[in-house]
Amino acid sequence: MQGSARRMGIMTDVHRRFLQLLMTHGVLEERDVKRLQKHCYEVHDRNATVEKLEDFINNINSVLESLYIEIKKGVTEDDGRPFYALVNLATTSVSKMATDFAENELDLFRKALELIIDSETGFASSTNILNLVDQLKGKKMRKKEAEQVLQKFVQNKWLIEKEGEFTLHGRAILEMEQYIRETYPDATKMCNICHRLLIQGQSCETCGIRMHLPCVAKYFQSNPEPHCPHCNDYWPHEIPEVFDPEKEREAGISKLNKKSLRYRQH
Amino acid sequence: MLQEPQSGGLPVPQAEGEKDGGHEGETQALTVSQEALRPLLQESTKEDLAAVREEGAAASAPTRKGARASAAKALTRRRASRRLNRTVAEMVQFLLVKDKKKSPITRFEVVKYVIGDLKDLFPEIIAGAAEHLRYVFGFELKQLDRKHHTYILINKLKPLEEEEEEDLGDGPRLGLLMMILGLIYMKGNSAREAQVWEMLRRLGVHPSKYHFLFGYPKRLIMEDFVQLRYLNYRRVPSTSPPEYEFSWGPRSNLEISKMKVLGFVAKLHKKEPQHWPAQYREALADEADRARAEASMRARTRGRARASARASLRRW
């Protein structure tokens, strides 16, 4: 009995509620995940101590293992926010049929993905994506429809849009990293620091190595004269700040105060 | 090959990745109770180790045909049970995704897209999937329609109080559904389509005007809610021009009670449920029916458990 108890974690209603809610959201920022965890304890086991999030999630993951899914932690490429997403570990033909998206929509995503990977900035313009609409497999799609499909991808957190350009959402990177590295080995860019897939980042103008923005922030933290770790040339880009959850909370609170003022005026 | 994650529903292209590992729980027969599963897991691991030893022995002594044959058999067995586990996992994912889209799952779809040639193992696979859904997610797999073999998932976790309920995006839509269910109930368990739209128009919801919370209300109500079996939509006989009416669908009957809906309506009007004596009486009768049904189900399960316990004792 001891052996199997170690292999598989224990699920209680606290864990089940957490999993259900996480599934509904798909992907959630760390501070929301912590709030979610607390909420689940309050609903189902008010007197218990809230387990450390990492252990809590590891416990659930050990149970999810036999279902080929996992709660994975990632970090957003633009500002280094930690987030959690429920990710599939193996390909199944099932999902192809049970999909939310039609064949032509999936192909649109694939085309956008290829443009994003090939780009220098990690962004593909709306125009360039829409120009490929005629090449899509499946039912013919008009540009107007394609615009809405792209918005669907953004709403479902597969793509991010910034000023008419699209890049991959952190969750898509988390889930598709292996696929991308194996399918586009030549076009794939990697971060020199963490050695993971890189879509957005900074690059050295001399030797061309790339780094994620949060990796840059951590590597050059409090370094007044940043130099390329590879060729030692001066690092010409602005060094971003390391993500600080405390500062985030303060900013959030001031935002809330502004919001409540607006409602009171009504 | 495209593949779909648990949520959001985008089939994500991923490379084939075989997950290997002895802990995969290579059970050959899936039983419904988790407690029964655990000893089976331990047993099959022993079997696994024995198979490995056999394979090792076969490798070092190629002339021992018997050892090779049994090692091959053990390998086939392991592959078969791994495939079975894989199929159960796919089934779980399929059911979760389909349920998230809120479309009832038919046995036909399940066999076509998940089970394939393992058709003979359908009962084991569905039982295994049901157990995972119950233990891991807190969902109960229920057969909605005995004739057409359709399934839905019911949330078995304790229902949240209104203060505890978080806005999950689904909230506004279900709120709209509640309004409609309330109207239907108060009108005597069916409401004409015209009445429903009149009520909604008063709330600023128009059938074909995009609403920031509900999208296109006509599509939500006429397609989604009906498809999800929350609402029934049928033609009223002998009406010309044809009129249509809504009534509660089977899923509504499973997921919510008349008393709860009456309570919701009462709160809206800032009154007590007893303010509507006819509806209150009907709701009370409905509560009694539900309690009776639950009690008889519990007795049946207890009886079954007792019978199986007796049977297993007899085996010893």
UniProtKB/TrEMBL annotation, chain A:
Q: Which reaction does it catalyse?
A: S-ubiquitinyl-[E2 ubiquitin-conjugating enzyme]-L-cysteine + [acceptor protein]-L-lysine = [E2 ubiquitin-conjugating enzyme]-L-cysteine + N(6)-ubiquitinyl-[acceptor protein]-L-lysine
Q: Which family does it belong to?
A: Belongs to the NSE1 family.
Q: Which SUPFAM superfamilies match?
A: Cysteine-rich domain (SSF57889)
* Residue ranges constituting the RING-type domain according to the UniProt record: 191-232
Function of the molecule: RING-type zinc finger-containing E3 ubiquitin ligase that assembles with melanoma antigen protein (MAGE) to catalyze the direct transfer of ubiquitin from E2 ubiquitin-conjugating enzyme to a specific substrate. Involved in maintenance of genome integrity, DNA damage response and DNA repair.
The name of this protein is Non-structural maintenance of chromosomes element 1 homolog
How does this chain assemble? Component of the Smc5-Smc6 complex.
Q: Which residues form the Phorbol-ester/DAG-type domain?
A: 176-228
Source taxon at top rank: Eukaryota
**Which controlled-vocabulary keywords does the entry list?**
Chromosome, DNA damage, DNA recombination, DNA repair, Metal-binding, Nucleus, Telomere, Transferase, Ubl conjugation, Ubl conjugation pathway, Zinc, Zinc-finger
Give the EC number(s) listed in the UniProt record. 2.3.2.27
Where found in the cell?
Chromosome, Telomere; Nucleus
UniProtKB/TrEMBL annotation, chain B:
Q: What is the lineage of its organism?
A: Eukaryota, Metazoa, Chordata, Craniata, Vertebrata
Outline the extent of the MAGE domain.
Answer: 84-283
Q: Where is the composition biased (Basic residues)?
A: 299-316
Per UniProt, the ranges with Low complexity bias are: 57-70
Which residue intervals are annotated with compositional bias (Basic and acidic residues) in the record?
16-26
What is this protein called in UniProt? Melanoma-associated antigen F1
Region annotated Disordered sits at 1-29, 51-70, 297-316
Q: Which Gene3D superfamilies match?
A: MAGE homology domain, winged helix WH1 motif (1.10.10.1200), MAGE homology domain, winged helix WH2 motif (1.10.10.1210)
Q: Which SMART domains match?
A: MAGE (SM01373)
